[in-house]
UniProtKB/TrEMBL annotation, chain A:
Pfam families: BPD_transp_1. InterPro entries: MetI-like, MetI-like_sf, UgpAE/MalFG_permease. The keyword Protein transport does not apply. It comes from Paenibacillus etheri. It is found in: Cell membrane. This is Sugar ABC transporter permease. Keywords: Cell membrane, Membrane, Transmembrane, Transmembrane helix, Transport. Belongs to the binding-protein-dependent transport system permease family. Residues 79-294 form the ABC transmembrane type-1 domain. One of its GO terms (cellular component) is plasma membrane. It is a multi-pass membrane protein. The lineage of its organism: Bacteria, Bacillati, Bacillota, Bacilli, Bacillales. The chain crosses the membrane at residues 20-37, 84-104, 125-146, 220-241, 273-294.
From TrEMBL, chain B:
One of its GO terms (cellular component) is plasma membrane. This is Sugar ABC transporter permease. It comes from the Bacteria. PROSITE patterns: ABC_TM1. GO terms for biological process: transmembrane transport. The keyword Transport applies. Keywords: Cell membrane, Membrane, Transmembrane, Transmembrane helix, Transport. The chain crosses the membrane at residues 27-48, 92-111, 123-142, 154-175, 195-219, 272-292. Belongs to the binding-protein-dependent transport system permease family. It comes from Paenibacillus etheri. Its main location: membrane. CDD domains: TM_PBP2.
Length: 307, 307
């Protein structure tokens, strides 16, 4: 087929005929090349002693010097551990939006359900900055809502924002609060695709609501859930910078310094470009390997996979 | 599966038994969802009433269900801070321009990729998807932006990161499933080219996906602070979120006020402003969602994950 001249000229004709489609693709392709692929070439500085005067190409090679520096630094095990704790903890909360969707699906389509759904989406629209600001205000042991609730019972509130031990819990559960409603939308949509005659047949066969959830709803959600789960596991070391960085302070830094905040501090605040890039590259490669592994496992076990 | 198989034997009795277990379940469900609703709403409601209350009453734990010492001082204080309004204006600008650019780029690329007769479709898709899992990282991207002289410019806030691969996949799925293929064949016979077909026939049929992507992109721009933190130096270009970060989290408003009565008042007002600024920053973007909500039910999201 490859060397068939007729096939070839037919393809060429098709390209020529569809030039409009390539025009539509052009802006996205150019931007991706410039701002995603060009920086990938810049990853080379992880293996170089980068100096801005010499540029990426001209800087001398450093081999794996910066990787070794990271592996040997005291921050290595700390940042990896903190990153893993937060992401595995978040992963455990993965079923919560599914449970919410199953519950919403059981509600009769009335006003309460609509109100419930609208309210549950709302926190999703709060920005990270406002969210963390909100937490700092509400969780303040002396003047915050939480502090005042504790003092109603004559007790002293724990300092949630200034505790290393509680950092991951505060991070993960505030995330659940903010996004559980939104994350459930996709599952509610999947459930709305269930053929109603299935439920009717199940009722005739004497199935209770629990049975219907167990044998109709949950199997219906599996493909969506597994796809999303694969993506989550593939991003295990990719805990976002934005929220953690805002929540960091001197009191919780021992458990809040994660890979992405460390990369930012080393790279942009103390200008060690090569070192920072090496840490980041290590992070990306691990994530990439994880994604491929999980995808392979899922393919074997459940015939669901990303590719 | 045991239940469904054995069900026909004692059907009538079973259905009766299940009715009562269903009633119990329904009660439990409504209790859970009502509790959940309170946990979701109360913090938001509290911020609203706190913003209208006397700050010392808020800090002293006297505000629970209604505002105490009703006042607009928090909002009046906002008006005095010019940088908030500069930030507000900047955010509106970045959001409007960024969303327009993002929609044009992603929707057109997605449409081209949805067409099965696009030669090289698989490779172009891969070209985009690869960037979801592998990227240059912070420093190489930063260096690229600087090399293109985009650092500290308006353009860096709206253009470089406007290609959203996930958005493209979602829109592509939408086009594949909801624009009938024969439509293009008919248009072609009438001598209509790809670009005209896209603009005059496809786009008017795609309001749902335009609304959904528009919402996603706009919320992203409105709420982000990361790009501004990294790529902007000039405070007059700061978006609202970066200014909020100074007010809510790093508390820069309070530094350099000195001591004495004047400082006490300033501190009081700064504390008050924290509530009103949250309201002013969050309400506009939350108000957009109800207008777009109906489109989320058209199965836009589910297709994305199945693909």
């Amino acid at each position: 087929m490859k060397s068939d001249p007729i096939q070839f000229s037919r393809k060429f004709g098709q390209i020529k005929q569809n030039w409009g489609l390539y025009t539509l693709l052009f802006p996205a392709v150019v931007l991706t090349l410039l701002f995603s692929y060009k920086p990938m070439y810049g990853v080379l500085i992880a293996f170089k002693d980068y100096s801005p005067a010499l540029g990426i190409g001209g800087s001398p090679w450093a081999g794996f010097k910066y990787f070794e520096k990271f592996f040997n630094s005291y921050q290595f095990s700390a940042t990896i551990k903190n990153t893993l704790v937060i992401s595995v903890y978040s992963l455990i909360t993965f079923p919560i939006p599914i449970m919410l969707a199953l519950m919403v699906n059981q509600m009769r389509p009335n006003r309460f359900r609509r109100f419930f759904q609208t309210i549950s989406y709302m926190p999703h629209f709060i920005s990270t900055v406002v969210m963390v600001g909100l937490m700092m205000i509400l969780f303040s042991p002396s003047t915050g809502l939480l502090g005042n609730m504790y003092s109603l019972f004559g007790k002293e509130a724990p300092d949630l924002m200034g505790s290393a031990g509680l950092f991951s819990s505060v991070y993960v559960w505030s995330d659940v609060w903010q996004h559980v409603g939104w994350d459930s939308i996709i599952f509610i949509a999947a459930l709305s695709a269930v053929d109603p005659s299935l439920y009717e047949a199940a009722t005739v066969d004497g199935a209770s609501r629990m049975h219907k959830i167990r044998y109709i709803d949950i199997p219906m959600l599996m493909p969506t859930a597994i796809t999303l789960l694969i993506l989550r596991v593939g991003g295990l070391l990719g805990v976002g910078f934005e929220k953690v960085y805002l929540m960091q302070n001197d009191l919780n830094i021992t458990s809040s310094e994660i890979l992405s905040t460390y990369v930012y501090k080393i790279g942009l605040l103390s200008s060690q470009y090569s070192f920072s890039s090496a840490i980041n590259l290590f992070n990306t490669v691990i994530n990439f390997i994880l994604l491929i592994m999980v995808n392979q496992i899922s393919k074997k076990l459940s015939e669901n996979s990303l590719w | 599966m045991g239940v469904l198989e054995t069900a026909p034997k004692g059907n009538a009795g079973k259905i009766k038994k299940n009715r009562s277990s269903d009633t119990i379940m329904e009660i439990v469900m409504y209790v859970i969802s009502a509790t959940f609703l309170v946990i979701l709403i109360y913090p938001l409601y509290f911020i609203v009433i706190a913003s209208f209350s006397d700050p010392s009453a808020v800090a002293g734990g006297q505000v629970w269900l209604f505002p105490k010492g009703f006042t607009f001082d928090g909002y009046k204080e906002l008006l005095r801070h010019e940088n908030i309004w500069i930030g507000y204006w900047n955010t509106i600008l970045y959001t409007v321009v960024g969303t327009a650019i993002g929609l044009v780029i992603n929707i057109s690329a997605a449409y081209a990729l949805s067409r099965k007769d696009l030669v090289g479709r698989k490779y172009i898709s891969l070209f985009f998807i690869f960037t979801m899992f592998f990227n240059g990282g912070l420093i190489p991207t930063f260096l690229t932006i600087r090399d293109f002289h985009l650092y500290d410019t308006f353009l860096v806030m709206v253009l470089p990161f406007s290609v959203g691969v996930f958005n493209i996949i979602v829109a592509r799925t939408f086009f594949q499933t909801s624009i009938p293929g024969d439509l293009w064949e008919a248009a072609q016979i009438d001598g209509c080219g790809n670009l005209r077909y896209f603009a005059q026939i496809v786009l008017p049929l795609s309001k749902a996906i335009i609304a959904v992507l528009g919402l996603w992109i706009a919320v992203g721009y409105w709420n982000s602070y990361f790009n501004a933190l990294i790529y902007l130096k000039n405070p007059n270009m700061y978006p609202l979120q970066l200014i909020l970060r100074n007010i809510l989290i790093t508390n820069q408003m309070q530094s350099g006020m000195g001591t004495g009565e004047a400082a006490q008042i300033a501190l009081r007002l700064a504390n008050m402003m924290r509530y009103s600024v949250i309201i002013v920053a969050t309400v506009p973007i939350m108000c957009v969602y109800p207008f777009v909500q109906k489109y989320f039910n058209q199965g836009v999201m589910i297709g994305a994950v199945k693909e």
